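TICKET #2291
ISSUE: user wants both folds in one file
ATTACHMENT 1:
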Amino acid sequence: MHKSQRDYVKITIDPWYRLVKRNPPIWYKRLILEALIEIYLNWHKKLQEWREPFYLKIWLFDHHFFNSQVVAATGDWIVGYNNTFTKSNEKRAFPFEKYKINNFSLENFQWELHAEESYFYEKIDQLSEAEINKIKQKAYRSGFLQNGDRYFAIKTGDVWIGTLHTLY
């Protein structure tokens, strides 16, 4: 990670991570989450030894769990990763009961709710007027890129961003 200044780990297990992705059952999600936390804790220890600022988070996707991952960054990549997701305006508590695991208390993490989004670009995607109108109906936000292209964001799920705030 020193050279690239970033790394991530996703748990990709057959049959849930094929061309058509499906979510595993809740008991299996909990096992995967335990593995992600173990990775997080190991990386946390290592990154602290480097004695430089770092970004280390668990991205827990709640609807598309198969996208969940541990993400680490240093240097110039920290700012980019801090701006990866749009913070949700919804005020909801983290679903501790849903993701309850045996070996670690998820309450040792600070969890922030963000939106998982799919983006559509008017020019880049060469959208027709009919496609634009259809996307506009679903989009919960839109804006313009620096090149003038208009984008539309459609919320596809939630992402809980977890940061360790207490060592056990």
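ATTACHMENT 2:
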Amino acid sequence: MARNGAIAVIAKCPIAGKSKTRLIPLLGEQGSAALARAMLSDVLTSLSRC
């Protein structure tokens, strides 16, 4: 099957204290960065199957 088209993913690097800042009070800096990292990983994994 031919693959036509492209998908661009634009994301910030999941750095503690800089990503998902609204979740820092709930998850902490490391926790919010880990969540951002996991979410980005899920997106990239899903797209790798396209």
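RESOLUTION: both attachments delivered.
EXTRA DETAIL ON ATTACHMENT 2: The CA atoms of residues 1 and 34 lie 36 Å apart.
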